[in-house]
Design brief:
single chain; 361 residues; alpha+beta; three-stranded antiparallel sheet
């Protein structure tokens, strides 16, 4: 599977490099001015004597890599993202498999004739990978494609399908909420304040935070991560012990990410399931700007001045560890399923107290 992932990533990056070359050449050559780089799914010219390992995987893997690149370019033309970029080797890796490379079979009890489960066969006759049991907790349809990903040594197989449930759009929900007057709308609305000490607090007094067990384990995992980072720095890069330390660091980083995602899911699920709330209001915080590094400063003699970078890095780490963005994203789709709406308001003066009467608006 790692070979499949690497080959698909190579084809994707090769298409990105080819596109960058054509666009750079068109700018420097007058004879090619006005000509656009080809946006196609050709990949055969990448299979040369320098890349014999591309023949050790199914050609469908390579074809899917070019399709993913073309799909990314289509998102760029729709102004949904930037141009396709190089996919790096480190971090989470995945491969996209279409129906030619997998199949689902039913496990039937010979005595009763009942379907007791399913098996997922991955690979082809020439490039067989293996079989795994699938214990489905709900009814599902056979997917047309699936993704296999690996992150910090942990593998996932994911696919999706349409359950047929009608989901109202945000515009429809907003039009429905506009039928209520201000007192009624205020009764079904809740303000959500994100902070560092308390990740999320509601306007009616509820607070959502990490449990004491999670806080203690996160501190322990952080200590283990730093210890293995120091060990990795002392070892020869690329050696077996260096790779072992790298996997250890990724394991401890994955634990923190799992805890934050779990807290974000539970918080958003609790809020979305509350029948009192129909409108969720967040402050429009620019987390990316809030977590920027402070600029370095020099005096007239060229010596570097203190800019509070150490203190700012601690604040940035606390902000990013509070799962502000994940909680909002998870709540948006969970509320949309139930006909509720999530909006943002400008953060300016949202907590200012009147000096005369003490009212906070």
């Amino acid at each position: 599977m790692l070979q499949w992932i690497g080959c698909q990533r190579f084809i994707y990056n090769a298409k990105v490099g080819e596109d960058q070359y054509f666009r750079r050449f068109a700018r420097k050559s007058l004879t090619h001015a006005g000509e656009f780089a080809p946006i196609d799914q050709q990949y055969s010219h990448f299979k040369t004597e320098l890349t014999p390992w591309l023949s050790n995987v199914p050609s469908i893997i390579l074809r899917n890599g070019t399709y993913l690149w073309k799909q990314a370019y289509a998102r760029y033309f729709q102004k949904l993202g930037g141009r396709p970029n190089i996919h790096k080797k480190h971090g989470k890796q995945s491969v996209w498999l279409t129906s030619e490379l997998f199949s689902f079979t039913e496990i039937v009890d010979l005595e009763t004739g009942e379907i007791t489960g399913h098996e997922l066969h991955i690979g082809t006759k020439k490039f067989a990978v293996g079989v795994m049991d699938l214990n489905a907790h709900r009814a599902f349809k056979i997917p047309a494609s699936l993704h296999i990903s690996v992150s910090a040594g942990r593998w996932h197989i994911s696919f999706n399908g349409d359950d047929g449930a009608v989901e109202p759009s945000d515009a429809d929900t907003a039009a429905w909420l506009m039928q209520f007057d201000a007192p009624e709308l205020g009764a079904m609305a809740v303000g959500l304040d994100r902070g560092v000490a308390i990740p999320l607090a509601t306007s009616d007094g509820k607070q959502f935070d990490f449990t004491p067990v999670q806080d203690r384990r996160l501190i322990e995992q952080e200590k283990h991560k730093k210890r293995w980072q120091r060990r990795q720095a002392r070892r020869v890069k690329g050696s077996g012990n260096w790779l072992k330390a790298k996997r250890k660091v990724a394991h401890y980083q994955r634990y923190g990410a799992d805890v934050r995602r779990d807290v974000a899911h539970k918080t958003s699920c609790t809020l979305a399931a509350d029948d009192r709330y129909k409108l969720f209001v967040f402050e429009a915080l620019k987390v990316k700007n809030m977590t920027k590094k402070p600029k370095s400063k020099q005096d007239e003699n060229g010596r570097w001045l203190r800019n509070g970078a150490a203190a700012k890095s601690g604040l940035n780490k606390s902000i990013l560890a509070s799962a502000w963005g994940q909680t909002k994203i998870f709540l948006q789709y969970k509320a949309r399923r139930q006909g509720k709406l999530v909006i943002e308001v400008p953060a300016h003066y949202s907590s200012q107290e009147c000096a005369a009467c003490g009212h906070i608006h």
